[in-house]
Specification:
- By secondary structure, the protein is α/β, with parallel strands linked by helices.
- It has a single domain, classed as Oxidized Rhodanese, domain 1 (3-Layer(aba) Sandwich).
- 28% of the residues lie in helices and 18% in strands.
- It contains three helices and four strands.
- Strands 2-1-3-4 form a four-stranded parallel β-sheet, with helices on both faces.
- The chain is globular, with a radius of gyration of 12 Å.
- The termini are far apart.
- The model has no long low-confidence stretch (mean pLDDT 95).
């Protein structure tokens, strides 16, 4: 886990083929998210459709849901998943 979401985003941007995943619920995602992020809410995490070797950088509001999501995804066979913390510490552009 990253203590600083901004450092996690730097690694995401420098990782070819990586996916930025927001695990907040759809209404939270719609209220503002990091540009380029895809919404995969915790309530539907089992519906993930990425290949098992996809590198995923996962965030939520504060970091706790992203940590839980990493645990669930690893149990599902995804090994390249990282929690980068919460958008509440993000310093950058927000997309709505």
């Amino acid at each position: 886990m990253f203590d600083n979401i901004n450092k996690g985003l730097e690694e995401y941007k420098s990782t070819p083929g990586a996916v930025l995943v927001d695990v907040r619920e759809p209404d939270e995602f719609a209220s503002g998210h990091i540009p380029g992020a895809v919404n995969l809410p915790m309530s539907g995490i089992q519906n993930v459709s990425f290949s098992k070797d996809t590198v995923m950088f996962i965030y939520c509001l504060r970091g706790s849901r992203s940590m839980r999501a990493v645990g669930i995804l690893k149990k599902m066979g995804y090994q390249n998943v990282k929690s980068i913390g919460g958008i509440n510490r993000y310093q950058g552009e927000i997309e709505k």
